[in-house]
Amino acid sequence: MPVYNLEKLMDETRRIASEYRQSTGNTLPVSAELAKYDAISLLGLKPATEPERAVDAWMATPEGDRKVQVKGRVVFDPKKSGYRVGQLNLDANWDILLLVIMNDRYETSEIYKVSREKILGVLSEARDQGQKSRGAISVKKFQAISEVCWRRG
């Protein structure tokens, strides 16, 4: 039996990360874990139990269970552009990519979903046009090619 309630720990992590950034201007590297936790909780995903590179969870679909890679991005200033999604692991065996967008308080505001085929196609097009794209994509581009699967009400 866990000593601490996981939901309370995550809420405290959000508070500490937000206050740390306000105090120092630096960020704590907690957004990836918060994103995974929120995606699993909010979308009802099954956490990955066996370690597999870039597979964070399983999503039930009409076609069967799909492997999910989760990425998180904190948007501190929504008026600014240029936010990027972290490096994607393109060699790993995942089916769906989720992007969890968080506000400056590390609270999830939206979750976007895109298939592996679609994201690989977009990255391939970028390479064909001479852009350096080794698994990197802007948040705006990701939002344009994906669908919202959760939004804060």
Tell me the strand order in the biggest sheet. 1-2-3-5-6-8
Shape: globular
Order of helices and strands: HHEEEEEEHEHE
The share of residues in extended strands comes to 25-35%
Outline the low-pLDDT stretches: none
Number of helical segments with 4 or more residues: 4
The tally of structural domains comes to 1
The profile of the biggest β sheet is:
6 strands, mixed
Give the CA-CA distance, first to last residue.
33 Å
Mean of the pLDDT scores?
93
CATH class: Alpha Beta
Query: Number of DSSP strands?
Result: 8
Q: Strand pairing plus helix content: what structural class?
A: alpha+beta
Q: In which range does the helix fraction lie?
A: 25-40%
CATH topology: PvuII Endonuclease, Chain A
Structure description:
The structure is a single chain. This protein has four helices and eight strands; from the N terminus they run H-H-E-E-E-E-E-E-H-E-H-E. The termini are far apart. The protein has one domain (6-151): PvuII Endonuclease, Chain A. The longest helix is centred in the N-terminal third of the chain and has 19 residues, at 6-24. With 153 residues, it is α+β, with helices and mostly antiparallel strands. A hairpin with a 2-residue loop joins strand 2 (57-61) and strand 3. A six-stranded mixed sheet has the order 1-2-3-5-6-8. A two-stranded antiparallel sheet has the order 4-7.
